[in-house]
Specification:
The structure holds 2 protein chains of 2 kinds. Chain A is built from 12 helices and 10 strands. By secondary structure, chain A is α+β, with helices and mostly antiparallel strands. The C terminus of chain A is likely disordered. In chain B, 48% of the residues lie in helices and 8% in strands. Chain B has a two-stranded antiparallel ribbon with strand order 1-2. The radius of gyration of chain B is 27 Å and the shape is elongated. Chain B starts with 12 loop residues before the first strand and ends with a helix. The chains are: A alpha+beta, B mainly alpha. Chains A and B meet through helix 4, helix 5, strand 6 and strand 7 of A and strand 1, helix 2 and helix 5 of B. Chain B: It comes from Paenibacillus oryzae. Chain B: InterPro entries: UVR_dom, UVR_dom_sf, YacH.
Chain lengths: 361, 176
């Protein structure tokens, strides 16, 4: 068992709450990229320079600057096992780049895991705030406040013309990446999704899968984020994303309503079929698990499976990732063994939900 | 399903590539995937935003990163004095080496930033402590615009109030 509680539970505390519009929006995230003026960016830093940056930035927490925000634990990447790192990536608490490529990497995690401050990722400092449901403005307000705390003691690389200077020119200016994770099963089922997503990319927003850049949209989960970071203010960027995401929420709800009206039996059959398979299957690969869990989550949201809580899908999606499975069962597994363990875990979890609810005899 | 690379082990990784609407599916086993090492979400060395960017950069830097024609003397490389990165290196990896690179490559950045962001000027947050002067300047610009608006509407009392505030801020700025 891991020594860090952060890699033990699949569901972060912040995810236990439900936020506004949580039938469609799983979570909202804001990330700010910042660098120190007098240090080369992590890409070119020597090992010693990376450690200096790490010390300077972790000291901000040790000296109590972040006390107003909350309680933070500092974790050095060098103290983590490969498995711990993998689990933190699967929980979205650190990025794959920090886990695999960083030198002098560190992360400061808030108690409820809603805030993750990464050091020596692509940039010296990356402040990430996560909120359940549709709360993108709240996430920005929190990130903004944390940024101010760091700025009180750290000399940022900032230019009047170019704004906050970042390693990658795609982040320069505000350094902000705001995103919402949306569950859009009805838009996928009714084949409207491509039309909507291509419209989204035309207004300066990007669409990605569950695990960020380059990952597939498993389980009908789509992450929509701003592309442009320069020339707009943070508020304009947030408003733009908010406005577009709000429309997608409405489209998804309308599509769900229409599905129920026009083909209720088919939808219900699909949900119950997936629930049945998840409750009884002995082998479950990650792709099928994601798809079936999406069906079950839709069933929970539509009231077809009233005893299932929507969070169970969030939790199971993380719990059934390879790193988490390995940690739960405390053994190295082949892909086939993993598929069996994944099926075991899902059966167990759904079974306990049924007993709790007392329904579905 | 059997791995399409080695044809022996069962395929455990399934992924799709979509390039210009053309879909290619791959079904391979873990060990072949590790050898190929490409296109796996989150894995280093795969297709990344940086390789895409360097495409844009090469375009902007024709004649600098490209090979000079035979007989022509090679151009002196543009280099960041602070970290030593050249523009050619930057255009290859799509990332800056330090904050001074922005200064060193300044003249070549406008076309790139325009393509990526449709803009070249920051108009968002300014750091509170170190950006004091910039914040002050932005505030003055904003007040001036408001003042001119009032003058055009012949609201001279409002304009005078703003003029006084602008003077105060300008005094503060010159004292810093």
């Amino acid at each position: 068992m891991s020594k860090h509680r952060f890699s033990r539970d699949a569901l972060s505390d912040w995810m236990r709450d439900t936020g506004p519009d949580c039938d469609v929006v799983i979570s909202s995230r804001v990330r700010l990229a910042r660098n120190l003026r007098h240090q080369p960016f992590p890409l070119l830093a020597t090992g010693q320079q990376a450690i200096e940056v790490q010390k300077q930035l972790t000291a901000v927490n040790e000296e109590g600057q972040l006390n107003d925000i909350g309680k933070f634990d500092t974790i050095l990447l060098s103290d983590l096992s490969e498995l711990d790192k993998r689990v933190l990536v699967e929980k979205h608490l650190i990025s794959p780049a920090l886990a695999n490529e960083s030198r002098g990497g560190a992360v400061m995690l808030s108690d409820n895991e809603a805030v993750s401050i990464m050091i020596n990722e692509e940039d010296h400092l990356r402040i990430q705030c996560l909120y359940p449901g549709f709360q993108i403005a709240e996430a920005w307000a929190l990130a903004n406040g944390i940024d101010d705390k760091f700025e009180e003691v750290a000399d940022y690389a900032f230019d009047e013309k170019r704004g906050y200077l970042t390693t990658c020119p795609t982040n320069v200016g505000t350094g902000i990446r705001a995103s919402v994770m949306m569950h859009l099963p009805a838009l996928v089922l009714t084949q409207q999704i491509n039309r909507i997503l291509s419209a989204v990319t035309q207004v300066g927003l990007a669409v990605r899968g569950l695990y960020g850049e380059g990952s597939e949209a498993l389980g009908n989960l789509f992450q929509i984020s701003n592309q442009i970071t320069l020339g707009l203010s943070e508020e304009e960027i947030i408003d733009n994303l908010h406005g577009v995401a709000k429309q997608i929420v409405e489209h998804e709800r309308a599509a769900r309503k229409r599905l129920l009206e026009e083909s209720r039996v088919r939808v219900e059959d699909r949900v119950r079929r997936s629930y049945g398979i998840l409750s009884h299957a002995l082998i479950m690969d990650s792709k099928e698990a994601a798809q079936r869990l999406s069906d079950v989550r839709l069933g929970a949201d539509l009231g077809i499976l009233p005893h299932i809580t929507p969070q169970v899908m969030n939790e199971l999606l993380v719990m059934t990732q390879p790193g988490f499975l390995q940690q739960t069962f405390n053994e190295k597994m082949s892909a086939e063994q993993r598929d069996c363990r994944r099926a075991d875990l899902i059966r167990e979890k759904l079974g306990s939900q049924t007993n709790l609810g007392g329904a579905e005899q | 399903m059997i791995c399409q690379e080695c044809g022996q082990r069962p395929a455990s990784l399934h992924f799709q590539k979509i390039i210009n609407g053309e879909k290619t599916e791959f079904h391979i086993c873990e060990s072949c995937a590790r050898e190929k090492g490409e296109g796996i979400p989150g894995s280093p060395g795969g297709f990344s935003i940086h390789s895409l960017l360097s495409g844009l950069l090469d375009f902007g830097a024709a004649g600098i990163s490209g090979q000079p024609a035979i007989g022509n003397a090679p151009l002196a490389p543009i280099r960041c004095e602070e970290c030593g990165m050249t523009y050619a290196q930057f255009s290859k990896i799509g990332r800056f080496g330090c904050s001074s690179c922005y200064e060193a490559f300044n003249e070549r950045l406008d076309p790139l930033l325009k393509r990526v962001h449709s803009s070249t000027m920051h108009s968002g947050k300014v750091p509170k402590r170190t950006g004091g002067q910039i914040q002050c300047k932005r505030e003055i610009e904003k007040l001036r615009r408001e003042m001119h608006g009032h003058i055009q509407q012949e609201e001279f009392e409002d304009a005078a109030g703003l003029r006084d505030r602008i003077r105060e801020l300008e005094k503060k700025l010159s004292e810093q």
